[in-house]
UniProtKB/TrEMBL annotation, chain A:
It is a multi-pass membrane protein. Pfam families: Sulf_transp. The lineage of its organism: Bacteria, Pseudomonadati, Pseudomonadota, Gammaproteobacteria, Pseudomonadales. InterPro entries: Sulf_transp_TsuA/YedE. The chain crosses the membrane at residues 68-88, 109-126, 138-163. This is YeeE/YedE thiosulfate transporter family protein. It comes from the Bacteria. It is found in: Cell inner membrane. The keyword Cell membrane applies. Its main location: membrane. Keywords: Cell inner membrane, Cell membrane, Membrane, Transmembrane, Transmembrane helix, Transport.
Automatic annotation (TrEMBL), chain B:
Keywords: Membrane, Transmembrane, Transmembrane helix. The keyword Transmembrane applies. InterPro entries: Sulf_transp_TsuA/YedE. The lineage of its organism: Bacteria, Pseudomonadati, Pseudomonadota, Gammaproteobacteria, Pseudomonadales. This is YeeE/YedE thiosulfate transporter family protein. The chain crosses the membrane at residues 6-24, 45-63, 83-103, 115-136, 156-176. Pfam families: Sulf_transp. It comes from Marinobacter albus.
Length: 168, 203
């Protein structure tokens, strides 16, 4: 099964810009992602350590209501379905552990986990991620969004040097 | 002023998300090799797609305000916390280079069948839990250097909105040219056929 080609970056960017604008028109705010993972952490905390989570000053507010009952939950669910439809219709759905040719499964999964931890920490500190703060904040021409984007790219280039052998 | 509709219901969430995920996947942003190619300078898709999207959305928002369809200050502009957003951006940039995803693209990665994207998500949950556990010592950093509420580039510079968008478009144009030159030199960008060629043999 040969995959269909990706959209060109220009057309994909225009399509993403239209989707983002439509989101602003519909809701009065942009797209996001990390907020869902905060809520999922609160939900998991409620199951695994209810007292600790309720007493936590950051997550406590989330568990006073139903943490997952929020717009962002539906948006991320929609994004999953949209990407699944994209992968299936593009003949690009492959169960796999995607990694560089010289990288083993073990090291790839360790790096994925470490990257995820850094991202989880960073998104909470910044109050958003590449979608919510970079993309949506950028479209709203927010200063915070551009501060975030500049630092995101700077650290990306720096750390890419350290781990590039795992990807190439 | 008929926009925004302020409809943050289930259907609006599913629709916005569906389009978001569909575009991300079709741009190739489910693949961590393609995504991290940005930082090896061999694939400039992340820069190109993000910058184009920011400019298209910013231009349409500006036009809607010009045409009286959308009110000034009617949509959400995040307020800056300069240091926290800078440090958070550094951490997410590092996490992206190391782990291969950001939160949104990990959803696209998992939807395409990638187990590494699922592991990245587990890492994000752990990172969020760590942030919550360390919130005491981190709070000072979290709240440090707040800027004006909803501060925009226009507020910061005094330059009119259309000129900011024009300047961003000029920057993007330069980035597209530089990116395409480097892509040619370094053998990029990743095509779908490069990334999925041996996919059934992998693992």
């Amino acid at each position: 099964m040969f995959p269909r080609p990706f959209w060109s970056p220009l057309w994909a960017g225009i399509a993403l810009g239209l989707a983002l604008f439509l989101t602003f028109v519909l809701t009065g705010h942009g797209l996001g992602a990390s907020g869902f993972f905060t809520r999922l952490t609160a939900e998991a905390g409620q199951w695994l350590a209810p007292e600790l989570t309720a007493a936590n000053r950051y997550l406590g507010d989330y568990v006073r209501g139903e943490p997952l009952q929020a717009w962002i939950t539906w948006e991320v669910l929609g994004a999953f379905v949209g990407a699944l439809v994209g992968a299936l219709s593009g003949r690009r759905f492959r169960p796999q552990i995607e990694r560089g040719p010289s990288s083993g499964v073990g090291s790839r999964l360790v790096l994925a986990l470490v990257g995820g931890v850094l991202t989880g920490l960073g998104a909470r500190l910044a109050r958003g991620c590449t979608s919510g703060l970079g993309l949506s904040g950028g479209a709203a021409l927010a200063v915070g969004g551009f501060v975030f984007l500049i630092c995101f790219f700077a650290a990306g280039f720096l750390f890419s040097f350290i781990v590039r052998r795992y990807w190439q | 002023m008929i926009w925004p509709l302020y409809d943050s219901g289930i259907a609006a969430g599913l629709l916005a998300g569906f389009l978001f995920g569909f575009v991300l996947e079709n741009a190739g942003f489910g693949s961590p090799r393609k995504l991290t190619g940005q930082f090896r300078l061999e694939d400039w898709s992340v820069f190109k797609v993000m910058f184009t999207a920011v400019i298209v959305a910013a231009l349409l928002l500006w036009l809607s305000k010009q045409m009286g369809l959308m009110g000034n200050g009617s949509y959400y502009v995040p307020s800056p916390f300069y240091v926290a957003m800078a440090v958070g951006g550094l951490l997410i940039g590092a996490g992206f280079a190391i782990g291969g995803y950001c939160p949104g693209t990990s959803v696209a990665g998992l939807a395409g069948g990638r187990i590494d994207a699922f592991v990245f998500m587990i890492g994000m949950l752990l990172g969020t839990a760590l942030f919550a556990a360390w919130f005491g010592p981190l709070e000072q950093l979290y709240l440090a250097t707040p800027g004006p509420e909803g501060q925009t580039l226009m507020d910061l510079t005094g330059v009119p909105e259309w000129l900011i968008i024009l300047a961003l478009a000029a920057l993007a144009w330069g980035g597209f040219r530089l990116g395409s030159t480097l892509e040619r030199k370094l053998g990029g960008p990743y095509q779908a056929s490069d990334l999925y060629r041996e996919s059934n043999k992998q693992n």
